[in-house]
Design brief:
Keywords: DNA-binding, Exonuclease, Hydrolase, Nuclease. GO terms for molecular function: 5'-3' exonuclease activity; 5'-flap endonuclease activity; DNA binding. The chain is α/β, with parallel strands linked by helices. It is 48% helix and 10% strand. The chain has 16 helices and six strands. Strands 3-2-1-4-5-6 form a six-stranded mixed beta sheet. It is elongated.
């Protein structure tokens, strides 16, 4: 089966910036985030050997979530300018590898990734999402997995359906309701006040979905509440008081899978047009000589073929 890699670029750049010391080039340009991003890219290409790759980026413009909820991500501290200044360099690296850069105003990178993952798995492709966080766990199925980092940049883990179940006791599609109930402090999504990770997991193990939970909530007798492994009078009160916010939070945390973005699988065939000379030039310019040694085998083969063609 053909393999597609979808890169959550902003998440990886942020993670790299905070995981690595402030590396600079001989000219004094700060490049720690670019180095980390490039290093992960090479590792992914070498380990997974993808046939297709695309890189999604967030845009500065507000998304539909910001418009609907003005407190969305409001408490998140602004990343330093030194991080944002490295994004164009990361894009240069991607362009040299002939990896399409995808952005859509009004949507986040996760929405673009979710849309492409859904579209291309229907075409029989196995998809791996490369990210620095766990926001995309809800997309996992038998053809979509998540490749992320536990600590720093080198300790990686792959989440399939089995791994999500092992960690949370839930199915991947239940992760939406899980976040709707417990909220998401990093994105300032409120959820149900007073329901934490354990409480959210227990409720979903018993009731399956947010909709089913609220459907049954009003019909429960006092004895059923006492006998329930996940409910108490206090929890019932919290759920009833915050019903509107629970469903609103669900809308905010759900990854949009119908972003109006047109691209074919053919256009994601990065090996067709990779500019190996440009990759090496950029790596030398950025003092990433160690990364040149890690260029993947199939890239070296492509370079040899190009050289042989030029001889005749």
């Amino acid at each position: 089966m053909k393999k597609l890699v979808l890169i959550d670029s902003n998440a990886l750049i942020h993670r790299s910036f905070h995981a690595l010391p402030p590396l600079t080039t001989r000219s004094g340009e700060l490049v720690n985030a670019v180095y980390g991003f490039s290093s992960i890219l090479l590792r992914v290409i070498n380990e997974l050997k993808p046939d297709y790759i695309a890189a999604a980026f967030d845009l500065a413009a507000p998304t539909f979530r910001h418009i609907e909820y003005d407190q969305y991500k409001a408490k998140r501290p602004k990343a330093p300018d030194e991080l944002y200044e490295q994004i164009p360099r990361a894009k240069e690296i991607l362009q040299a590898f002939s990896i399409p850069i995808l952005e859509k105003e009004g949507f986040e990178a996760d929405d673009v990734i979710g849309t492409l993952a859904k579209k291309f798995t229907r075409e029989g492709v196995e998809t791996m999402i490369i990210t620095g966080d766990l926001d995309t766990l809800q997309l996992v199925n038998n053809k979509i997995k998540i490749y992320t980092m536990k600590r720093g940049l080198s300790d990686t883990v792959i989440y399939g359906e089995k791994e999500v179940k092992e960690r949370y006791g839930l199915k991947p599609e239940q992760m939406i309701d899980y976040k709707a109930l417990r909220g998401d402090p990093s994105d300032n999504i409120p959820g149900v006040k007073g329901i934490g990770e354990k409480g959210a997991c227990n409720l979903l193990k018993e009731f399956g979905t947010l909709e089913n939970l609220y459907k049954k909530l009003d019909k429960l007798t006092e004895k059923q509440i006492i006998d329930s492994p996940s409910l108490s009078e206090s929890v019932v009160e919290k759920l009833k008081t915050n019903k509107r916010m629970a469903f609103f939070s669900k809308r905010l945390v759900t990854i949009h899978q119908k972003v109006p973005i047109k691209i074919s699988l053919k256009e994601l065939d990065w090996q067709k047009n990779i500019n190996i000379d440009k990759v090496k030039e950029l790596f030398n310019q950025l003092n990433f000589q160690t990364l040149i040694k890690r260029l993947p085998g199939q890239v070296i083969e492509l370079e040899k073929k190009a050289e042989q063609t030029n001889l005749f």
